[in-house]
Amino acid sequence: MPTSPLARGVWGVVATPFAGSTLDVDEASLGRLVAHYESVGVTGLTVLGVFGEAARLSTAERAAVLEVVVDAVSLPVVVGVTATALAPAVEEAELATKIAGDRLAGLMIQVNTADPKQLAGYLRAVHHATGAGIVVQDYPVVTGVTIGAAGLAAAVREVPAVVAVKAEAPPTPAAVAALTAGTGVPVFGGLGGLGLLDELAAGAAGAMTGFSFPEGLVACVDAWRSGGYPAARAAYLPYLPLVNFEAQAGIGLAIRKESLRRRGLLMDSGVRPPAPAMPAALADQLGRHLEVL
Amino acid sequence: MPTSPLARGVWGVVATPFAGSTLDVDEASLGRLVAHYESVGVTGLTVLGVFGEAARLSTAERAAVLEVVVDAVSLPVVVGVTATALAPAVEEAELATKIAGDRLAGLMIQVNTADPKQLAGYLRAVHHATGAGIVVQDYPVVTGVTIGAAGLAAAVREVPAVVAVKAEAPPTPAAVAALTAGTGVPVFGGLGGLGLLDELAAGAAGAMTGFSFPEGLVACVDAWRSGGYPAARAAYLPYLPLVNFEAQAGIGLAIRKESLRRRGLLMDSGVRPPAPAMPAALADQLGRHLEVL
Amino acid sequence: MPTSPLARGVWGVVATPFAGSTLDVDEASLGRLVAHYESVGVTGLTVLGVFGEAARLSTAERAAVLEVVVDAVSLPVVVGVTATALAPAVEEAELATKIAGDRLAGLMIQVNTADPKQLAGYLRAVHHATGAGIVVQDYPVVTGVTIGAAGLAAAVREVPAVVAVKAEAPPTPAAVAALTAGTGVPVFGGLGGLGLLDELAAGAAGAMTGFSFPEGLVACVDAWRSGGYPAARAAYLPYLPLVNFEAQAGIGLAIRKESLRRRGLLMDSGVRPPAPAMPAALADQLGRHLEVL
Amino acid sequence: MPTSPLARGVWGVVATPFAGSTLDVDEASLGRLVAHYESVGVTGLTVLGVFGEAARLSTAERAAVLEVVVDAVSLPVVVGVTATALAPAVEEAELATKIAGDRLAGLMIQVNTADPKQLAGYLRAVHHATGAGIVVQDYPVVTGVTIGAAGLAAAVREVPAVVAVKAEAPPTPAAVAALTAGTGVPVFGGLGGLGLLDELAAGAAGAMTGFSFPEGLVACVDAWRSGGYPAARAAYLPYLPLVNFEAQAGIGLAIRKESLRRRGLLMDSGVRPPAPAMPAALADQLGRHLEVL
């Protein structure tokens, strides 16, 4: 199966909505959420990522989530793989490949070692087992692994099946610049869009993140293409206070889900334990952020 | 299903043997390994734990490993759960319950939050879904979660289904003392047996770890019961240099598998990536340790 | 010596300028820098903090820096203490007290333990030795100590000499709310102003940080007082892209010094090793940020 | 000033004794302690290291400690430098040089960067400022810096003034092997002697650590030289249970001081906050360890 570089633009990282006190997957909200993503012009979706709480879903739930997304919209999807070793990663990848079919734009695989050679072998093996393109996610705060931009670029250069890098090892702008210069693949910023302006300036192909107003990410990336930094800055400015508010360590996921709920996109804002809930002290301030958008 | 406290003594944490360059599960070696465990008098086995590389096995491989163990020996088994959230943990737990049947002495669940109330809810929910007893593993170096002995004891007291605690948050001896005093359940030391003498003195019910000479753990725990510290010390002393050698951060698993291979218990000593291999510089020294045992 | 709560507003955290390849303290630039701070209406200055590279200055250099600041402007000063134990902290504190005299608004002491009682004892002892008010800095990324807002509030309540808290343990807005509600002292946000809007909404008394455009911090805090969130938001918006750019982990100090240099406030932008330099790839983007301010 | 490689053998890392509730430096105990070190045949002493609580001493106290040691014994001394940047490190180094004079065998400088070139520049600069030989301490748990054995060897090779490396980045035996092979300088194990047998087998020149029975370290290193591994093992075995007991994270310093007190070498076992005290639950077990030695 030939693989293609991920298209430039915004890839929305999709939250998994849960309903009520049992926190069952809320498929109706999920359908509504991804339809909204499609309506605002994202390039594609990233499903079952860290912010999709994939590590807190059963296999059946992962399958259901992916099916709902594929049915609800016609966007290409990147599917996150939670495991960080070959055998269970391939097991997840096969499920994703089977459900997403030709809608699968890539499997998102986490950097699991600081050794470029070993990483390249791992990426190659996942591709070999599935034929799918590989999106490499460099996210040390989740994995505990720090490879550095030079090492990551070296690994990526060895694996033609890599179709994108998601650069989430701060400071990201310089990493985006190094990865873009050092590999032939598109590099996307994440981390809630905190550094999007600087990542675009460094050569990023777009954003792949879960900010609750994907409209803002799309506006920024579109403006960047047409008008460069001044246009992107002007387009993004209104969203930045909420971007920073949502980027709070640990509680960012809960804030985003509550924001999506208030926007009418989710029925409930519950997160699965052990993810922390949004502190009550922040409820009014979230309201102030949303009021002006 | 009523649950019983885990029996005192040594619970051997079983390595998963892999064969050749493909690193497939080596069922023959696995059967030989657990038969050896049984022959040296361990109380039970812990399968699919961190040192069993469970996080690097597919679902089918996990099932196969557990089946081999249950078929090969008649010991009770604790089965490790890799996931750290309810839905996927229950999925693993159901597989374990189905295969191990009445041989299941407990499900080993990792501390996944520093909040005692939330932890208690999680443990209770896993028990409720499966009926199985719960072995709580407090292992911050793997989970990144630090709860402290007081918080852990508070959680354990709220969940009658907890049948044991595996205390692996250093410094462990004081934690063992606090957990033993603060809960009604047996507390086991881990960490390769590094602090076994001090954990027993602090009230530990035994050892649950993967030291390559379980004979040494059994000798130490038996001697402790019959002769107290002086006897336990004398029994354990010959093994301590190897205990310390195997306790090396990161490479301990590879060292142990190589030791088991040289003992004739495993055919190969391979570990699955990204686990690091044993440095070649240590090969001779491992030989010196084994020579005298 | 009676102590007073720190005045609300912006406390500028002062960089220590170094000259040329020898990286000697550049007193002329330092004088110019603090005069600029005074001209833009800050409430006071924080000297010898983490961002002032105090840990990389000799005793004589610390004394010189403080003397220059006290001579150049008439603002009150908070003086940072680098040591995290009593004897060397008192040694630093005595130097600060001697030089700053009645200009000393407080000694900034870092949280050095997660135990509220022990922390209270430490703060009390530093006050007792010097008579100075205490600004408690909660900055886990530097100290490695995580106390939590509840524990910190408990410690602060026991020490009447505490005149302010600098809250830099993310997520900060909820922490600011808890500390403000739980103590009688003013709480200041830091971290480069990344969460200033949310910290003010949570009750912060102002900002104490080293953002290279203190004008922006002053405008934001002033607007908050007079017009609440909408005004503060409008005032702060133009600065947010640079705030985020400067907040990059590790290299933030170097970026800020280069920004100050381009503004004509510093002669050189050198940082002392092992602080990393600003990556060359970011030079143009810094220019874009500055161009519009 | 020409520098010489540190002599092989045991360098005792000296605790700083404190008296009573004020925790003043107890010079009488200090003199007794180092006299004991001399009497058991150590090669030299390491003063003002991490375990000497140097970071919790004032400048005057550091000077006093060093003076007492130099006066009480005729051993060569390595003097620890607490600061991790040039200017304050040189300030400490000058004090050490002045007091220790020709008794100074080396300044112990901590690895402060993962960049070998930058580290080499730092080490060279400290040497240049003082003329003293440099002992490089690689101790990530204290510094937060991980350079790796290859990077450290590269830095050491560039600085002829390096007279020894103290290897405390686990796993240490392979690091000792790599550093010994990759540099011309003697490499010493630390970490309380936990891996001493394996470090000697890997080529270590000896031990530099604060174990409360330096007799055990001396016996082990002497036996290694004369009889190789079997002799060293036999000599060290009786001490290993206490070595492991003392190696407990965080509380190891307090345990060691209490052990030294019970041995009659210190009057009190107090540690300065925020160092944690020895848990009461361990008091009896310490007694059991000491009884048999």
UniProtKB/TrEMBL annotation, chains A, B, C, D:
One of its GO terms (molecular function) is 4-hydroxy-tetrahydrodipicolinate synthase activity. Keywords: Lyase. InterPro entries: Aldolase_TIM, DapA-like. One of its GO terms (cellular component) is cytosol. Pfam families: DHDPS (PF00701). The keyword Lyase applies. SMART domains: DHDPS (SM01130). The keyword Lyase applies. Belongs to the DapA family. This is Dihydrodipicolinate synthase family protein. It comes from Gandjariella thermophila.
